[in-house]
């Protein structure tokens, strides 16, 4: 597994204090990405780790997993090396480590991977496939299929919507997706646009006016709440 960076973070990548592994490589090309350096599959700054090396490091770190913490795999897109991810998740579960992943939801094997994950975070970037392709580089059919299957399973699921002005700041399409689904076990976090990663782009940064107003965020929240979706802020 190619690890670009790693470190502890509290409550931002799952509950409690967690050791977070950022994997190199992503199949999406979100035009607002905060970590564009993680997109290519190869990066000289990324280091190869074996599954056993990761498990050993986690075992040495477990005293730091306070307040319900554990290990989170994120990206890039952490599900791309699916076989290795499944193996490491199985080994961590076997020794009682809480596991979490942050994923763009596009891997067909996500439902299989999710069975080994205690805290599952899935991005839901756009409800419309053509708009998804325009802003992210690929359609969203597999994302929608995975979300539908995960929601239907009744498992706990944390969905994140990055809210960008002029891209996906209309709630109605998201509400239409969630309508008539049993959403009792999910919560949705709205992430207003920011430019924390803008200076890291080596190519043109194409989002020129992505900031959303507080009123837009409140209205978006309200529309989700009105159809029974629990929204949270972290």
Can you describe this structure in just a few lines?
The protein has 234 residues and is an alpha/beta fold. The chain has helices spanning 51-61, 82-94, 110-114, 129-136, 141-153, 172-178, 214-226; strands at residues 2-10, 17-23, 47-48, 70-74, 99-103, 119-123, 157-163, 186-192, 230-232.
List key phrases describing it.
single chain, 234 residues, alpha/beta, 9 strands
Plain-language structure description:
With 234 residues, this protein is α/β, with parallel strands linked by helices. It contains seven helices and nine strands. Strands 3-1-2-4-5-6-7-8-9 form a nine-stranded mixed β-sheet, covered by helices on one side. Helix 2 links the parallel strand 4 and strand 5. Helix 1 packs parallel to helix 2. It is globular, with a radius of gyration of 17 Å. The chain starts with a strand and ends with a strand. The relative contact order is 0.14.
Helix/strand layout:
Blueprint: E1 2-10, E2 17-23, E3 47-48, H1 51-61, E4 70-74, H2 82-94, E5 99-103, H3 110-114, E6 119-123, H4 129-136, H5 141-153, E7 157-163, H6 172-178, E8 186-192, H7 214-226, E9 230-232
Parallel strand pairs: 2-4, 4-5, 5-6, 6-7, 7-8, 8-9
Antiparallel strand pairs: 1-2, 1-3
Helix pairs in contact: 1-2
The percentage helix is 25-40%
Radius of gyration (Å): 17 Å
Structural class determined from secondary elements: alpha/beta
The number of helical segments is: 7
SS strand fraction: 15-25%
Q: Compute the number of strand runs.
A: 9
């Amino acid at each position: 597994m190619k690890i670009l960076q790693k470190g502890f973070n509290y409550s931002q990548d799952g509950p409690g204090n967690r050791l977070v592994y950022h994997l190199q490589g992503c199949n999406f090309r979100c035009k607002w990405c905060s970590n564009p350096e993680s997109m290519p599959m190869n990066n000289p700054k990324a280091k190869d780790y074996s599954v056993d090396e990761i498990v050993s490091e986690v075992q040495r770190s477990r005293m730091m997993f306070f307040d319900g913490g554990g290990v989170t795999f994120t990206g890039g897109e952490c599900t791309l090396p699916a076989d290795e991810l499944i193996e490491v998740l199985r080994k961590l579960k076997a020794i009682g480590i809480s596991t979490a992943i942050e994923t763009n939801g596009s891997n067909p094997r996500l439902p299989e991977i999710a069975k080994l994950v205690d805290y599952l975070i899935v991005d839901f970037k756009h409800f419309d496939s053509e708009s998804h392709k325009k802003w992210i580089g690929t359609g969203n059919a597999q994302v929608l299929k995975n979300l539908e299957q995960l929601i239907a399973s009744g498992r706990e699921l944390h969905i994140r919507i990055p809210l960008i002005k002029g891209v996906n700041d209309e709630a109605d399409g998201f509400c239409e997706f969630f309508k008539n689904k049993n959403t009792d076990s999910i919560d949705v976090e709205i992430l207003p646009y920011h430019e924390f990663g803008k200076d890291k782009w080596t190519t043109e940064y194409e989002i020129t006016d992505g900031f959303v107003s507080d009123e837009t965020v409140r209205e978006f929240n309200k529309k989700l709440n009105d159809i029974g979706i629990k929204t949270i802020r972290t």
